[in-house]
Specification:
Strands 1, 2, 3, 4, 5, 6 and 7 form a seven-stranded mixed beta sheet that branches. The protein has ten helices and seven strands. The radius of gyration is 20 Å and the shape is globular.
């Protein structure tokens, strides 16, 4: 019987062919990769330490090693590109959210390189995300919590290899650099003007309401406690969870 949060047969049938081919293990029986992936999802949902993994998922070290090796080889990123093959480019939405870093996630040297910074809420990591017109994730980036939204937002928009019709974002993204970038690509900005702008731009308020879809994306991934609070010391491992759960959203 399938337990809560585990992959359905339909989801597994899509993911399984995208995983690397199994290597020969001599006389040892091959490990059940579906079971190990379900173990990772259990850890992501509950936020529990790896060592507390229930025994029916097998050794915690096997699930951890499986998850980490695929992240190191960028397999999760490649799978996300494969499943996100038909985004709705009519609109793109950009935003960021703060994640509090747990004490177990802090303490590693060079915390700024691990996307951990100090802001008003203490040690935090900021998730910058871009979603399509239906709220499905396209790409994301991690920065220390004190970094400004517009700096990374500009970089995400600049790296777009396709021009959407509109870009929706809050007033934190109302910068001259972003507006000029969108204008150069004939993209319509649906971004409220900052209060200190002398000349306010017109805003399509009805279209702007659609921006709630990126807030819904953050809400969905933060239902997984491993993303609502950061326990990982390395940004790479935290990104692995974010990528895996984004894959799960595309599969649903």
């Amino acid at each position: 019987m399938r337990r809560r949060y585990e992959l359905t047969d339909e989801e597994w049938n899509i993911v399984d062919p995208l995983l690397p081919a199994r290597k020969k293990q001599g006389g040892r029986p091959p490990k059940d990769r579906r079971q190990m992936l379900n173990a990772v999802l259990w850890v992501a949902r509950t936020g529990a330490p790896w060592r507390d993994l229930p025994s029916y998922y097998g050794p915690w070290s096997s699930a951890y090693s499986f998850f980490w090796r695929l992240q190191k080889a960028n397999i999760w990123g490649e799978i996300l590109k494969h499943v996100a093959i038909e985004p709705d480019w009519e609109q793109v939405m950009v935003d960021a959210t703060i994640v509090r870093v747990h004490q177990h996630g802090a303490g590693k040297r060079g915390q700024d390189r691990q996307a951990i910074g100090r802001s008003r809420g203490g040690l935090t990591t900021k998730i910058h995300a871009m979603v399509d017109a239906l709220g499905y994730p396209l790409r994301f980036e991690l920065t220390p919590g004190q970094d400004h939204d517009s700096v990374t937002g500009y970089r995400l928009l600049h790296e777009l290899d396709f021009c959407p019709g509109e870009v929706l974002a809050d007033r934190a993204y109302d910068t001259n650099a972003i507006l000029e970038l969108l204008q150069s690509r004939a993209i319509t900005p649906v971004i409220p003007s900052k209060r200190n702008r002398r000349v306010k731009r017109p805003l399509d308020s009805e279209t702007y309401k659609e921006r709630h879809l990126i807030e819904c994306f953050f809400n969905k991934v933060k239902n997984y406690r491993r993303l609502a609070t950061r326990y990982e010391k390395t940004a790479n491992m935290f990104m692995a969870f974010l990528t895996l759960l984004s894959i799960r959203l595309w599969l649903k």
